[in-house]
Each structure stands twice: as C-alpha cells, then as structure tokens.
TrEMBL record:
This is Kinase-like protein. GO terms for biological process: signal transduction. It comes from Polyplosphaeria fusca. InterPro entries: Kinase-like_dom_sf, Plant_MAPKKK, Prot_kinase_dom, Ser/Thr_kinase_AS. Residues 1-195 form the Protein kinase domain. Pfam families: Pkinase. One of its GO terms (molecular function) is ATP binding. Keywords: Kinase, Transferase.
Length: 195
C-alpha cells in the first residue's frame, strides 16, 4: 500500500521545493528510508507517493506504548512494542548515518518525522523510517555542509546553533537524533519498570 503526501503550493512553498523532497527520496535508496515512488500535480497541489504506508509516526507509537502500559491484558503486545522500540535505536542511527554519507542534512529530525510501519508475521512487528525531507539539503562536497542560512526548526529537538541561526553541519542532525533517542529511551525505561 502507498501513502500520499499532498502539498499545496503557494508563494512560501513552490513546486520546485516539493520536487527537491522527491529527489532526496529517490537518491536515498536504503532499507530504512521511505521510498518516493512517484509524484503528480493537480492544480496547485503536488503529491508524492510514498512506500510503505505507515500506521504511526514515532510520536504516536510512543503514546500508544504509554496507553498499552496501563492495560494489563495487553502485556504481550507491550513486550513486542518494547522489543521493536529498542531495535529502532540502531535502525534510526544507521539510517541517519547513511543519509549523511550521501551528503544530505535532514534538518528536521523529531519523533513525528519518523514513520512506524507495522509488519505482519515477523519476529519484529514494526519498522521505522525517517520521513519529511522537505527542508533537507544535499551538498556536492563535505566542505559545503557547514551552513548558516535561516531555517525553520522544532525548538524541542533543534541544536542550539540552529535555534540561534548560527553555522551548523551534520552535528545539528546528530543532536536532534539524540533528543529523539532520549525520548524513546525514557519510554522504554518507564515501560520496563512497570513490567
């Protein structure tokens, strides 16, 4: 099943900017990166077709872990979700490393920008994929990665240099990744203590 990301174009969001996101997805072929399988335009709206379609984002997955924790009958499901959540640490870290080796800065790493896809009939029941490469930037060489241009950010997950609009490189993504991993780790610890 495919997912569709619809983006309404305007003065702020030009079609060329949306196409850049689709190009990033096409160039980042990796097992834990959502694949852009097509784009189309309908009026002022551009749609990107993505695979796989996800059941949650990481933020919603963590919320569901908290809810299931309060239901004693859901113990087996909680154990499965915790096992997957622990595995996510490695998947997320390797994937962001891969993205950086392709000289791409994600620039908006946060729990809601990781999709969680439910798998049927496997030991691990969920996979995780970074998404929303809308403000990402790609570079031709490593020297270009350090930038200081203004960019949008989510303060809770942004590196201080991003918030202050100072020069930053891949380290800003890594700090954001650390915030996401910390958030996930706290969920694992909370759930483990109650089990």
């Amino acid at each position: 099943m495919l997912a569709r990301k619809r983006i309404r174009c305007s003065r702020r969001m030009k079609k060329e900017d949306v196409v850049k996101e689709a190009v990033h997805l096409r160039n980042l072929s990796y097992s834990h990166v959502v694949r852009g399988v097509g784009t189309y335009t309908l009026g002022e709206e551009v749609s990107i077709l993505l695979y796989p379609a996800a059941n949650y984002n990481l933020e919603a997955f963590l919320e569901e872990c908290h809810i299931i924790l309060s239901i004693t009958a859901a113990h087996a499901r909680m154990v499965s979700m915790l096992r997957d959540l622990r595995r996510f640490f490695q998947c997320i870290t390797r994937t962001i490393h891969f993205v950086h080796t392709k000289l791409v800065k994600h620039m908006d790493i946060k729990p809601s920008n990781f999709l969680v896809h439910k798998r049927a009939g496997a030991h691990y029941t969920h996979d995780i994929f970074p998404t929303d490469f809308g403000i990402s930037r790609s570079y031709d060489n490593i020297e270009e990665v350090e930038t200081d241009s203004a960019t949008a950010c989510t303060r809770n997950y942004a590196a201080p240099e991003v918030v202050r609009q100072e020069t930053r490189g891949f380290g800003a993504d890594i700090l954001s990744l650390g915030c996401v991993l910390r958030c996930s780790r706290l969920c694992v610890l909370r759930c483990s203590r109650q089990n």
